[in-house]
Amino acid sequence: MAVSLVEIRTQHDQVFTENCPTRTVLDHVMSKWGILVLLALSEGTARWGQLRRAVDGISEKMLASTLRTLEADGLVVRTAYPEVPPRVEYALTARGDELMQRVLPLMGWIADNADEIVAR
Amino acid sequence: MAVSLVEIRTQHDQVFTENCPTRTVLDHVMSKWGILVLLALSEGTARWGQLRRAVDGISEKMLASTLRTLEADGLVVRTAYPEVPPRVEYALTARGDELMQRVLPLMGWIADNADEIVAR
DNA sequence: CAGAATCCCGAATGATACTG
DNA sequence: CAGTATCATTCGGGATTCTG
């Protein structure tokens, strides 16, 4: 796995420039809510209401639009069950799970170091 | 190292809630420009002009404010040399470097998968 | 060269109310 | 329960100009 920017560049000539697909993915995944929704889903399948409570502070509007973006990116799957009352479940796709394997160590580090960083 | 949200929670009771320091760090590091500036610096020390060119599309205003935020967070050091014309160098701190060790695998994965994700 | 200061617009976000 | 619709608002961020 590439562990330096130089290595990444050896395999991609146009990385992280404007209009590069990587910028789009960055915007979706690293967005304020995107990463928190993905984080919540990293624990497993969750329903709309669960996500709303798990992602502290998110509005219904932002949860909806974030989920739609992540679903369009193929990182999240939405499953609606034809029941009354309605039940809808969200889960990571295989690709989403792969992504979160890279994100979780980062989130762990942030959780460990946030106090010191913000304190200064 | 923590590799799941459950593990992270065992060590931190208030993780990723609103008003939690982690949210602040997330906003700084995962911001549109923050991560790209950090990425550019992961290759080593760089001057203002180099950063401006390395981070494609960034305005002077955003470069300045991003650098100030990252410096205040202790992730970047600024060194000004008392010369004419002025020379200023930016570099990752030890903490910044530690952070980027977690970020780079993620960026590599994004570079590898961005095309497929956006194509859909 | 390396910024700081100002002005300003539009997209992103939030709050609220409503619906299948 | 799981959303959508609408409106009000903020503020990220670009363009421009100026300075040590």
Task: Produce a short descriptive summary.
Chains A, B: It comes from Microbacterium laevaniformans. Chain A is mainly alpha-helical. The first copy, chain A, is built from 6 helices and 3 strands.
Describe the structure.
Two copies of one chain form a homodimer. With 120 residues, chain A is mainly alpha-helical. Chain A has a single domain (31-119), classed as Arc Repressor Mutant, subunit A. Chain A contains six helices and three strands, in the order αααβααββα. Chain A has helices at residues 5-11, 21-29, 34-41, 48-54, 60-72, 94-119; strands spanning 46-47, 76-81, 87-92. In chain A, strands 1-3-2 form a three-stranded antiparallel beta sheet. In chain A, a hairpin with a 5-residue loop joins strand 2 (76-81) and strand 3 (87-92). Chain A is globular. The relative contact order of chain A is 0.12. At the A-B interface, helix 1, helix 2, helix 3 and helix 6 of A face helix 1, helix 2, helix 3 and helix 6 of B. Chain B binds a DNA duplex (20 and 20 nucleotides) through residues 31-33, 47-49, 52, 59-65, 80, 84-88.
